Amino acid sequence: MFKHAIVRKIGKSFVNGLTTSDLGNPDYEKALVQHEAYVEALKRCGVKVTVLETDERYPDSTFVEDTAVLTPKCALVTNPGAESRNGEIDEMKEVLKDFYDTIEYIQSPGMLDGGDVMQVEDHFYVGLSTRTNEAGALQFKDIMGKYGYDTSIIPLKEFFHLKTGVNYLGDNNLLVAGEFINHEAFSGFNQITVKQEEGYSGNCVRMNDCVIVPKGFKGTKKKIEELGYTVIEVEMSEFQKQDGGLSCLSLRF
Question: Cβ(216)–Cβ(222) under 8 Å?
């Protein structure tokens, strides 16, 4: 049961953030509206939302998920793989002290982005990407092992982050897209396959009794509703332009 979420307001520098997409420049005003709707969606799921102020020094800092991994047993502060984002963890360390007595850290040369970490009950999956290296993944595995968690490490071939294309919905249901469809690491799950043309919707967020999905992907929305979940749609067009998905915009615990 999730009780809390942490988000960060968008700065005007957001439009200058890192991206690999060719979808054009984000519209700052539209992004503000979409972010407010995202926060309201979290609240509808029954959690208290802590909203951090903008930090213009870090254009990508609204994507708070990459700065930490939060579990019922401990918080782990990451070491983001993009040098321009690494300073984002400094404030997050202090914020998490209000919620956690036990905080762990990934140390250089290890790199880890929270977007590459998926928790399924007492098991973690960590993707090796351009932002998460083997040293970071192995550190994560060792740290979480102290708390009784197992970890599987999965090299990525196509996706930017692990959770770009695979997300756990609970009840053994796993949303999979692209390279994760029929992936051997996920053979034990009930896989909900995302069509290629709706690939962006592979990143959804299960929050208590609801699943938050990006707006405009009818096929994925229908499949999730057929499983019995209450679906909340949120427009994400401006974040998609910056390689951001629904899970990227919050830390949930």
Answer: no
Encode pLDDT of 191-208 as tens digits.
999 999 999 999 999 999
Between 61 and 22, residue with greater pLDDT:
61
CATH of the domain at 106: 3.75.10.10
pLDDT at 114 over 90: yes
Q: Where does residue 215 rank: exposed (0-12), middle (13-18), buried (19+ CB within 10 A)?
A: middle
Q: Which residue has the higher pLDDT, 18 or 31?
A: 31
Structural domain including 127 reads: 4-252
Q: What is the pLDDT of residue 7?
A: 98
Q: Is 183 a catalytic residue?
A: no
User: Taken in order 198, 202, 204, 210, is the CA torsion positive or negative?
Assistant: positive
Residues 6+ apart with CB under 8 A from 49: 4, 5, 6, 7, 39, 42, 43, 250
Active-site option among 4, 161, 183, 204: 161
Catalytic residue list contains 204:
no
The answer to whether 62 and 92 are in contact (CB under 8 A) is no
Which residue of the set 35, 45, 204, 248 is catalytic? 248
Contact criterion met (CB below 8 Å) for 84 and 131? no
pTM summary value: 0.96
